[in-house]
Amino acid sequence: xxxxxxxxxxxxxxxxxxxxxxxxxxxxxxxxxxxxxxxxxxxxxxxxxxxxxxxxxxxxxxxxxxxxxxxxxxxxxxxxxxxxxxxxxxxxxxxxxxxxxxxxxxxxxxxxxxxxxxxxxxxxxxxxxxxxxxxxxxxxxxxxxxxxxxxxxxxxxxxxxxxxxxxxxxxxxxxxxxxxxxxxxxxxxxxxxxxxxxxxxxxxxxxxxxxxxxxxxxxxxxxxxx
Length: 226
Ligand code: SF4
Ligand code: SF4
What we know:
This protein has 9 helices and 3 strands. The protein is mainly alpha-helical. A 3-stranded antiparallel beta sheet has the order 1-3-2. The structure holds iron/sulfur cluster (2 copies).
């Protein structure tokens, strides 16, 4: 198994571990708010009972917690990102990877997906994997090693020979925000690799907290609004 495959497997295992720890943490916080009653947070309690009050308290607490978690962790991630400086290698303009085909992106854009809309305005697909491979052979290898099979590769036709954006000041938001996720694919040469490495664990924790808290919130809202 290659180092990259090992890394990918290690990320999956790390997320599983972070997810289980976070389930434990949230469940013990929910329990600490429990009144002196028997039952589960997702039970059908009578309206105005102690259990019903517990569910309302937990919902309020988790809604606030979710806002704090998002603001705190995204703040940490962007603070670290600001410490890196783009070296202008142009890889992100010439090698944009998406799990969506051009026609799927078109449908998403027509259905109002803003990111898809901006993506198809900015990038065009390579005619074939082979064409992309000629430009960045090492990245195709990287994607294959990472076990990615369903992907499409795009490039921006505007990037200049010397890797400049002809309208840098007015570049699309999708370009301004890159890279925005420390767990996503990053071109090998990208100077944000140190940031990716440092922010990965914060990002995994954020993802787990958002996923679990969202689950509680949606379930509790369904019970309280029945
Ligand atoms: S619009 Fe500019 S920054 Fe964005 S991908 Fe094209 S060349 Fe790069
Ligand atoms: S791949 Fe990274 S270093 Fe290269 S131009 Fe894009 S953001 Fe800058």
